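TODO from last week: model Sarcalumenin.
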Amino acid sequence: MKGSVSFCCFLSLLLLQATAEEEDIISVLRDRSHIDETFRLAAEEKAADYAAAIQRLRKIYHTSIKPMEQAYKYNELRQHEISAYPGRTLGDSATDGEITSKPMVLFLGPWSVGKSSMINYLLGLNDSPYQLYTGAEPTTSEFTVIMHGEKIRSVEGIVMAADSSRSFSPLEKFGQNFLEKLIGIEMPHKLLERVTFVDTPGIIENRKQQERGYPFNDVCQWFIDRADLIFVVFDPTKLDVGLELEMLFRQLKGRESQIRIILNKADNLATQDLMRVYGALFWSLAPLINVTEPPRVYVSSFWPYDYAPDTSRELFKREEISLLEDLNQVIENRMENKIAFIRQHGIRVRIHGLLVDRYVQTFKEKMSFFSDPELVFKEIVDDPDKFYIFKSILAKTNVSKFDLPNRDAYRDFFGINPITNFKPLSGQCSYMGGCLLEKIEKAITNELPALLSSINSGKQPGLSSCEATGCGEKPKNRYRKN
């Protein structure tokens, strides 16, 4: 009897000890209420207004921009323009999936610096069955896309690439080996209704790209080109810059406004040591970020547990809130950014159309009955400045010289697209459809700015009276001689 009582007491003590330990663990968990408050997750969005604006944007793109894209094969020019247009792109030819996609936040950096832990913390996934796996060793070997869905499920890369309603179908070009390293996770989360997170494999400096089995840098570039915000994460023990990290920062050139540097796990250091590490981080990155204004650096510890004792708790908390506000600003401005990117895309398509038209006109002017077409056009494409191809565009249109693409890109472009395949802009008009140039100029100068103004002023974007009735006007062709 005494043995039974003693055993029961022993069990009770074990249970009490376990409960006390659990309470201690819970007590050191950080308060997450500021995350919900910053993102206003409890507030209801005006879904109808957002959907109307997206629908209007899709209509402008499909009726005014895409026809010139297709007529002058803009997507094939983009394949030869590696550095002509640095910055955010909407793909070779913008798709409905890219237009309707949510803002993308990309996490880059060395292995085991806390990228996956940071995503777990932002979404509150810690100690849940759905948290991203973390550890001291390299753990993330896939590109993981965390997005909103009606239920929790994982989506294979081959399924994501095959689904045209998503914006990931262009990833098929990187091969099946890569698609096996691509995974999507869907879950019903309020924050994911407004943003998509992408976790990437950590950079390992002693690993060669071919050992990954797919073009790692090319895949990173694809995500970089489409990201609205890029978090490059470091921790105090991994500040060395090797060849792979150096290549990554070369790929980020032109995207400095989207880059945020994060010095994670900062509470592992005393204040004096943290100052030294902060200086060392800038010393390492200075040769790689050659801009007047360096990216914003956030110093904190992004995981669910409380800051270590005797550290700069208030500083870390303020830094975390600043980062959350930065991220929330991108989410709040997603519609404005999308309109701006579509307009930028339209400007590039227009410039391409004007240049192809000028090449076509010059070719026809230089051709005679006895001329060899190949020799004539080779002379034009090899030395476009001799025939004032680019200068005439600057003189006759309101195109900035800084927006002109690389001349060499057109040598490759016309190498696979014969000049005889293209009509001049004067021949790109129809009674019902109008003129391609006038439609894209109207979109750039009137329709897209008007849509942006309606978003900023809170008005419901809708069809203009002429778009609703057709107005019965015959399209004018300013390129056709009377």
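Done. The chain has 18 helices and ten strands.
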